[in-house]
Write a structure and sequence with these properties.
The chain has helices at residues 2-16, 21-34, 39-73, 77-90, 95-142, 146-159, 164-198, 202-215, 221-256. It is an all-alpha fold and 257 residues long. The N and C termini lie far apart (190 Å).
Length: 257
Amino acid sequence: QQREAEIEKLLAAAAAAGMDYDRALVCIAHALELSPANEKALRLHETVLANRQRDEQANAIDGELKECRDLMEEGRLEQAETRARALWKRNPDNPGVQKIIRDLGERLRRTLATMEQRTQNLASARREAYLEGRREVVELMKSRRIDDAITRLQELAAAFPDEPQVENDLRRAIAHRDEVARKAAFAKERESLQGLVTSREFEQAVYKTQELMAIFPQEPELVDLLDRAREARDRAARKEAYARRRKDFEELLRNRD
């Protein structure tokens, strides 16, 4: 009877140990030493072992959940998802695991939505920068700042290689600049040609016109200028020849007298 009282005391101490499983197991071990076949001690022993295993698993799960949360806080969502899904496969019914799977899903959805919005914002900002650049080019062309417009178009072509219109505009701007320069050069040469005609240097005017026709073959005006220069040269030559003949005739008349 005294032994039974001691056993009950040990088992009561084991039950009172709560989550101090090592202490509870020591008390149960002493009780089993006194009565190895004691059913109550054996059942309590199984219960304590099961509870300890359950709590150890729960603690391990909590530790992994904390690691997943830490990864989420650091923004390492892919790693967090990998860890969480591996944990979920082992513990599909654990409420904490189920919650972190839901939280991760929501976090990933928000992150994806943010990335999509950012992509849209970047695309919108890029498009606006492109359009603003095109507007600048238009204003530069209106102001006849062609070289500045070409420089801006070259910048746009480098920044927006997927916009073929920029390359087209750049080619047109360069062609326009070259045409303006050609016309300016032609106007200058034409003025020089007109000076030769005015100073009655008709032979030089003919040569000059022929040179210009080789340099500016697309200027049909030069054909007419050449004809007029030749006509003026020939007319001047005729007048000069007539003047010489008349002078000679008058000289002849004076000599006869």
